[in-house]
Amino acid sequence: MPELPEMETYKSLLESLIGGQKVTNVEIGREKSINVPVATFNMQVSNQAITTITRRAKYLIFQLQNGKCLLLHLMLGGWMFFGKEEDKPNRTIQVKLSFGEQHLYFIGLRLGYLHLLSPEEVQEEFKKLGPEVFDPGFTLDAFHQIMQKRKGTIKTTLINQEVLAGIGNGYSDEILWHAEIRPDKKINDLDDQQLSRLYHSIQFILKKGIQQGGYMENPLYKGDGKTGGYPFYVYDREGEACSRCHASIIKGEISSRKTYFCPNCQK
Q: I need a surface site. Which of 61, 97, 155, 240 has the fewest CB within 10 A?
């Protein structure tokens, strides 16, 4: 599932590709991917310019000229492609927004969606989300205060969107490896030094993820050299050598989620 770095990469690239551009046509291939009747969606979105593109947690928000918003959540398996008709991937397209001869294709939205909402409805969707990890208010002290109120394992806490926004299964493993903390460690058993290390690892890994274009396998457009440049340290690398201590990375399961870690460095 795309996480904060992937959605931030999409945001920055799409700003340069379609920011300020007018949607010239809309095609809906799967009605369940939107939240209103097709005719309503077409009427509200067609001939509207994309004024801004912003990110919150794992969502993208496309602000339209008429004040409406398109709220995108790709969920598991969702991705996008931008280009001409002859360049599009040989995949089923759930939603297609045209910008003249170029098109933005939304692919793999079996669970994901592109909803047409008012700004107030968007904010209602975000009501329960935790803080953004790059907000100025998300300080080391603020992180300690958040963790003091939590129970359970650190892995499940990191991926809880009501605690912190934007971290998912992949980057939680990367963060915990960088902080040298086992994913099944109980929060109550972490001392102040470990929590401080964890805070800095969150910042480091997610910034690195953004700088290297996240881990999406598919490019956003033909010739895209940015998307998918992040190399995992531990996630999905079972049996490979840890780049820090050379022990074999193992795969476990925590709360029904696959979890990768180094049994030697993460103690």
A: 240
